[in-house]
Amino acid sequence: xxxxxxxxxxxxxxxxxxxxxxxxxxxxxxxxxxxxxxxxxxxxxxxxxxxxxxxxxxxxxxxxxxxxxxxxxxxxxxxxxxxxxxxxxxxxxxxxxxxxxxxxxxxxxxxxxxxxxxxxxxxxxxxxxxxxxxxxxxxxxxxxxxxxxxxxxxxxxxxxxxxxxxxxxxxxxxxxxxxxxxxxxxxxxxxxxxxxxxxxxxxxxxxxxxxxxxxxxxxxxxxxxxxxxxxxxxxxxxxxxxxxxxxxxxxxxxxxxxxxxxxxxxxxxxxxxxxxxxxxxxxxxxxxxxxxxxxxxxxxxxxxxxxxxxxxxxxxxxxxxxxxxxxxxxxxxxxxxxxxxxxxxxxxxxxxxxxxxxxxxxxxxxxxxxxxxxxxxxxxxxxxxxxxxxxxxxxxxxxxxxxxxxxxxxxxxxxxxxxxxxxxxxxxxxxxxxxxxxxxxxxxxxxxxxxxxxxxxxxxxxxxxxxxxxxxxxxxxxxxxxxxxxx
Length: 487
Prior knowledge:
Elements (H helix, E strand, L loop, with lengths): L1 H13 L10 E4 L5 E4 L12 H4 L37 H4 L3 H15 L5 H25 L8 E5 L6 E5 L2 H20 L7 E2 L4 E2 L4 E6 L8 E5 L17 E3 L3 E5 L3 E8 L22 E6 L5 E7 L17 E6 L5 E2 L4 E4 L3 E2 L8 E2 L4 E5 L2 H7 L7 E2 L10 E5 L5 E6 L15 E3 L15 E3 L24 E3 L9 E3 L1
Parallel strand pairs: 6-12, 19-20
Antiparallel strand pairs: 1-2, 3-4, 5-7, 7-10, 8-9, 8-11, 11-12, 13-14, 13-23, 14-19, 15-18, 16-17, 16-21, 21-22, 23-24, 25-26
């Protein structure tokens, strides 16, 4: 769905008269999702005018589709509604869903802060314009009758949009920037602007004051926000029961880790709807969100069985015996719901897990297959079963907290300790309370003391190996004497 949203935004942004009708197709890579593309026919897009082709549909940037019909009746692709020329059976249905429309708005405003920012768009125009500028004169010279650039005032038949061209290549580049700027402004003014934060998030001191601003918020608007990462907009467009509100700037003291999400809301807001416009209107802006971290939660991975030894009998899948051990290395009880793995394996702690809280110094275990694990480690409490499996060749593991704050991220390698690579031993953290940055180093780990590891408990300290000395050898003997080695 995200690919569809992005492609629809791109089509709507460029206002190509034929972009959906003849210039894009559905395709699906093996194992992937349905997508659309590629686009072409940009000779009828982004401000080309009917003085050359008689097609004024892509001329006016301040309309969702063309104002002047080609041949009198074809106004181009209607990106939001079924239309006589192109029935639009896919998007025509999706845009009757208010939650899809909101996703579209959210994604557009997200892109506006990055790839679709005015500076980014104008930078692309300059980059590509400079790239072909040296070939422009040769192109004009090659094709007889081709003018170098538009000259004079150009206005569509109905007077919707006017521009005066100087007749130069640089003038065409300037017009392209103006057209794209007007297009972005038109799309911006259809939606409520997103709020802004006085900080992008990250590490903060306890008591930091977060200010949420909603610039140019129309009269009657409300600022809604949450501190737990949930969306202040509920499914269907209602206000979430967990949302907090402010009529203007919100000043929030943060004393603990928080994921703050905010939107502007105005029940009276209307984007352009109706004939050849989006069928629905949203009262919500897109969201703005950031994570603020007072302290990193003390939940550490203390043991990894990533490549278990194959069992002598029974299941042939030794991956079923994988486990990950976690420990609360802090001094206070730690609630686990909301912690989740975002790389390596897939698992999120919830209130329904067998273990939802760890006391200081307490361990818990996540496993690949509960039944297989308990057959090898009977009686070890299991917090949950994850999906996916640990890569026997090593991989990056990433654990985040309830506020999406980074808790632990590291990459392990079997070459560190070959005994852990299918030979029955696990990786064990040497210093369970050490700095998280050390977890990326072989020096932070060792092989478990005993075969099978020690899930759910502290691994015993490795015993010292008594020195062995080769004291005497006897070789090349004749019977009845035999070769011998004395230790």
